[in-house]
Amino acid sequence: MRSALLTTHLALSGVHVALGGRPVLVGVDLTAAAGDRVALVGENGRGKTTLLRVLAGDLVPDSGEVRRAGSTGVADQELPAAGTVGDLIDRELTEVRAALAALDAATLTVAEDAEAYDEALARVEALDAWAADRRVDVSLAALGAVTDRARPLRTLSVGRRHRVRLAGLLGARHPVLLLDEPTNHLDAGGLAHLTERLRSHPGVVVLASHDRALLADVATTVVDLDPTSDGRPRTYGGGWAGYREGRAAERARWETAYRDQGEEHRRLADDLSAAQNRLQSGWRPPKGTGRHTRATKAPALVRAVHRRQEELAAHRLSVPPPPLRFAVPALTGTALHAVVDVPGRLGRTVVDLGAGGRLVVTGPNGAGKSTLLDGLAAAAGRVGYLRQESDLPADRSAHQVHEALTARLVSSGQLAEDEVVPLGAVGLLSGGDASRPLGELSVGARRRVDLALVLAARPRLLLLDEPTNHLSATLVDELTAALRHTPATVVVATHDRQLLRDTRDWPALPL
Ligand SMILES: Nc1ncnc2c1ncn2[C@@H]1O[C@H](COP(=O)(O)OP(=O)(O)OP(=O)(O)O)[C@@H](O)[C@H]1O
Ligand SMILES: [Mg+2]
C-alpha cells in the first residue's frame, strides 16, 4: 500500500492578505508535494510569518484558496509558556495518539469490520506512530532539550521551550511541517540533527529561516517575497543555488526593462516635440500632396506618439526599490579586561582585549555564553549590548523609544548631543516601520530596532548575543562585513555556522 504521506500536499493560489491596511501578500501561489522542502525568504517584514500562518490555517486570507492535506505541525516564531514539557510534546503527538487509539478500537471490532482495521493500520504505519515517542526522545537528546516531561514550561528559557517543541514536531512526522526560524536556539549538534531530520522528512516542509547554511542544505524550492516588477513573489527551483542565480537574473531583467522603458519615454518625448516644431514652423508636405493630407498628417503623427505614450504609461514599470543598506556609524574601540565568575552558570573566565579587539564566543546551549556577555556588559563602560531576546514596548514606535533612550544618555552626560546616531542613519528600518507601534512590526524588524538602539549611543564595546537571529540573510552579510571593519571592540556569541566561518580568523573562546 502506498503510504498516505506520499500523497500529502499543500496548495495555495492567488492568496492576498492585508494587515493594518497595507498589502502584505499579493497573489501568492504555491504547490508542494511530499519530499518538497520550501524555503520562504525575503527581507524582514516581507510576510514570511504571515504566509506560514496562512498555510497553517491560522490566518484566513482576504482572497485566494488554501488547500492542505494531512495534519500540520507548526513551530512559530513566538511561543507560549503554559503547561509542562509533556503537554507540549503531547500537543504535537495528538495525531499520532489518535491514530494509535483508533487502531486499538478497530482491533476490537476487526471481526465485524476488517476494512476499518486496515485503514486504521495504514494510518498508524504512515505516521510510524509506534515509534513516535522514541523519535521524540532521540530529538530531545540531540537538540539538548529538557527530557523531564513533568517540568513546567514557565521554568524554562524561551530557547529551551523552543527545543522541546521542535523535538515534538520532528518526532510527530506531520505530513505538513511549518517552521518559522527554527534554528535560533540550536547549537551545532542541534543544527546537524535538524538538518538531517528535515532532509529525511517524508512530508512537506515549509520553512522561513535566516540560516543560510540550513537553507543551502535543505531547500529544494525557494519562494522569494522581496519586491518584483509585478509585485508578485517568485518561486525558484534548483535549491538554494538555483535561487541565488535566479534572483540575480530576475533583478537584472527588471533593471534592464526599467532602463529600456525610460529610454523609450525619452525617445517619444523627442518625437513629440519634433512633430510640434514641424507644425509650428509651417511644415509643408512635398509638392503635389493634396490639401487634405497636408492638414491632417502632422496631427496624426502627434496622435500616434500620444497613443504610444499612453500605452507605456499603462504598463509603466516601477523603479526597482533600492534595498535598505546597513551603515555602521563611526565608532572607536576600548580595551576590555574582565573576569566573570558566576557560580552554577559559568566558571571563572578571563577576557582580555585591546581597543578594537575581536572575540567570538562559542559553546553548546547552556555553556554560559549569555552569562559571560552579561558579565562583560557590567564590567565595561559605553557598551552596546544586543541581547538574545528582544524586550521592546509594543505600544510605542521605534522613533519614540530611540528618542527617549538618547535623551536619557545625553542628559546624564554619557553621550554628547552631537554624538547621537539618528535612527534613520543606520539603514535598518524603513520610514514606515520606524513610526509604527513596535507590536505591529515583524519579529525581525523588532530585532533591527534593537540593533539600531545598540548603535545609537556610539558604543566602544559591542556585545552581540546571537546577532544573526531573525535578521534577513542580506542584513547578516552586511552586519558581518561591518563587524569585521569597525574600530570598535567586538565580542560575538554565536551558533550561526556561516558567521562562524566568516569570523574564523578571530580569536575564539569556546565555553
Ligand atoms: N498585527 C499587525 N498589524 C499590522 N501590521 C502587521 C501586524 N502583524 C504583522 N504586520 C505587518 O505585516 C508585515 C509582514 O510581517 P511578517 O511577520 O509576516 O514578516 P516576516 O517576513 O515574517 O518578517 P521577519 O523576517 O522579521 O520575521 C510586516 O510589515 C508587519 O509589520
Ligand atoms: Mg517572521
Walk me through this protein's architecture:
This protein has 16 helices and 16 strands. By secondary structure, it is an alpha/beta fold. Helix 9 packs antiparallel against helix 10 and helix 12 packs parallel to helix 14. It has three domains: 224 residues, P-loop containing nucleotide triphosphate hydrolases (Rossmann fold), CATH 3.40.50; 68 residues; 175 residues, Rossmann fold (3-Layer(aba) Sandwich). The structure holds adenosine-5'-triphosphate (ATP) and magnesium ion. The site of adenosine-5'-triphosphate has 20 residues, from helix 1 and helix 14. The site of magnesium ion has 8 residues, from helix 1 and helix 14.
State the distance separating the first and last CA atoms. Answer: 51 Å
Number of DSSP helical runs: 16
What small molecules does this complex bind? adenosine-5'-triphosphate, magnesium ion
Helix content: 40-55%
Number of domains: 3
Low-confidence stretches: 1-6
DSSP E strands, number: 16
Q: What is the gyration radius calculated from CA atoms?
A: 29 Å
